């Protein structure tokens, strides 16, 4: 078979045929690498031909964070958008009601959240079925993905959607594997790892065969986690996005308490009824929690802090410098020091440099040079 899809199917079939054990580990690793390369070709190839962007999918980012609604048709994504944001998006009891990306915004804890309603996706979306590719393309730009599921439909839908997103390089609720690849001129492949880490999922031979497949002949591969073959491939491929995800289980108005109890074991999930607006408080709180943002209140000199409009910064970039950059690019350069009140300091206020790590609801005043 000559087509990319054909080659992918062939490798997937071979992987399914191959028993998983120590003897086949290296070979399986190699197949995984080949598969990842073909999938990348498939995605990149489609970008060039015919503009995968598509009408209406280039929605401008607004607000502090972007959250995307992904799910099968008719699970209630549009109903949820309309109820949460007040932005009307047509909802109906036939599939593929929504044909484009419709943005709405709402405010929670002083944070402006952009919510994107998207067309439903189906199995095979990542390979070009329906508008799947555009939808998943937008999902890649989101800080958080809400996978919307219908409580009255089987949970297999969850796995299908996860697979579609993963096939497009999105990793859900997963940290970037701590693997460092340093190329060198000679010396072959050297695996480096601290004695504290036991590698149970990946042998040195598999590392070598994966590197060989990617034509990496000389490099130090440094592992700081118990990585799998997929983790190594992800780091070599490099274009993965690591996105938090919440499973929104909708239409719970249609199931019994007993059924709901069973579903309660799904991790990262919130049950809601978009129709009846049940449990929206928990949903909004969980969205806030998973976005992992912090609120910083500004305090102009001689005035009380502005508690109405916090500056919103991702926790990962929540230093005094990160805060400055959110306000104005020049501010960090002009800063002499920052005065900080709140839980991140021992004394209130405390003089802090630009590397000081801020906490949620700290108050900051920037003192400029001269
Ligand atoms: N019982 C019940 N029905 C709901 C709920 N939310 C949405 N619906 C119904 O489910 C149907 C589909 O809702 P939509 O909001 O259009 O679903 P969607 O996910 O946007 O569908 P597509 O745009 O086709 O992908 C409509 O008839 C809604 O009234 C809910 O919480 N409970
Ligand atoms: Mg819709």
TrEMBL record:
Highest taxon in the source lineage: Eukaryota
Entries under Gene3D superfamilies matching the protein: 3.10.20.30, 6.10.140.1070
Domain OBG-type G span(s) in chain numbering: 65-292
TGS domain location: 292-368
Coiled-coil regions listed: 1-41
GO MF term list: GTP binding; GTPase activity
Keywords: Coiled coil, GTP-binding, Nucleotide-binding
Protein name, entry field: Uncharacterized protein
């Amino acid at each position: 078979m000559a087509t990319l899809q054909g080659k992918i199917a062939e490798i997937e079939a071979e992987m399914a045929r191959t028993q998983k054990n120590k003897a086949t580990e290296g070979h399986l690793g190699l197949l995984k690498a080949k598969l990842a390369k073909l999938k990348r070709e498939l995605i990149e190839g489609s970008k060039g031909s015919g503009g995968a962007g598509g009408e209406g999918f280039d929605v401008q980012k607004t607000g502090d964070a972007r959250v995307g609604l992904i799910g099968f048709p008719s699970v209630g994504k549009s109903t949820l958008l309309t109820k949460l944001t007040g932005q009307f998006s047509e909802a109906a009891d036939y599939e593929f009601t929504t044909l484009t990306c419709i943005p709405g915004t709402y405010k929670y804890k002083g944070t402006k959240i952009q919510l994107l309603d998207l067309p439903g996706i189906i199995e095979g979306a990542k390979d070009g079925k329906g508008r799947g590719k555009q939808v998943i393309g937008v999902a890649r730009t989101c800080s958080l993905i809400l996978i919307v599921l219908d409580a009255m439909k089987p949970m297999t839908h969850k796995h299908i959607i996860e697979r579609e997103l993963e096939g497009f390089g999105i990793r859900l609720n997963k940290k970037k594997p701590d693997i460092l690849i340093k190329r060198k001129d000679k010396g072959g492949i050297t695996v480096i790892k601290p004695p504290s880490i036991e590698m149970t999922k990946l042998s040195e031979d598999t590392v070598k065969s994966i590197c060989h497949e990617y034509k990496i002949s000389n490099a130090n591969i440094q592992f700081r986690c118990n990585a799998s073959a997929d983790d190594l491939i992800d780091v070599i491929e490099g274009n993965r996005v690591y996105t938090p995800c919440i499973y929104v289980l909708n239409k719970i108005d249609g199931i019994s308490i007993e059924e709901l109890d069973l579903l309660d074991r799904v991790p990262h999930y919130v049950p809601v009824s978009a129709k009846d607006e049940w449990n929206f408080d928990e949903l909004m709180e969980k969205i806030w929690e998973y976005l992992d943002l912090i609120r910083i209140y500004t305090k102009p000199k001689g005035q009380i802090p502005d508690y109405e409009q916090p500056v919103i910064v991702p926790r990962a970039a929540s230093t005094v410098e990160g805060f400055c950059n959110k306000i104005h690019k020049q501010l960090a350069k002009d800063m002499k020091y920052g005065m900080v009140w709140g839980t991140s300091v021992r004394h209130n206020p405390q003089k802090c440099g630009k590397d000081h790590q801020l906490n949620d609801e700290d108050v900051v005043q920037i003192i400029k040079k001269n």
